[in-house]
Write a structure and sequence with these properties.
globular; about 160 residues
């Protein structure tokens, strides 16, 4: 019985290592767009009630695309990695691309959906979090805040 338990713990440990891979930790520590924007078109503060993670984002829109972006992220490594990937990809995106990325990321985490499309394909590294539902809200937080911000801007 102890051997079975130790094997089970080994599996948990392996999944944890995969969940917090070197790539995820690298993204989590390299957060882009951390400088505040002057006169943003929209600013949104979102908090996950599940884990307490927060994101505060500001955007500027030009010609129907995100032209400037700022983020202040207080989250676990997975939430920070997601925010970093989104931040690296967001400039030049349309509101439809952001909504699609949010929907695709949620499907990847909850329904074994495909990897989000370009330019958000790096979100694939978060696929090991599928089995950790308590982490989904932190991972989704930045894209959900962006969709909310886009809904408050004209055009």
């Amino acid at each position: 019985r102890d051997v079975e338990r130790s094997r089970g713990l080994g599996d948990v440990y392996k999944r944890q290592i995969q969940l917090y891979s070197e790539k995820i930790l690298k993204f989590a520590t390299e957060m882009p767009h951390t400088e505040s924007l002057t006169n943003p078109d929209a600013s949104i503060l979102r908090r996950s009630p599940v884990c307490g993670s927060t994101v505060n984002i500001s955007i500027k829109i030009s010609h129907g695309m995100l032209s400037e972006y700022s983020q202040d992220v207080k989250a676990c490594a997975l939430g920070q990695a997601a925010a970093s990937i989104v931040g690296n990809s967001i400039i030049g995106c349309t509101s439809n691309q952001v909504r699609d990325a949010r929907d695709q990321l949620l499907a990847m985490l909850t329904n074994n959906g495909p990897t989000p499309e370009k330019p958000f394909q790096d979100l694939e590294i978060l696929s090991p979090a599928k089995d950790y539902k308590n982490r989904h809200s932190s991972i989704m937080l930045t894209l959900e805040a962006l969709v909310e911000a886009l809904e408050t801007t004209p055009g």
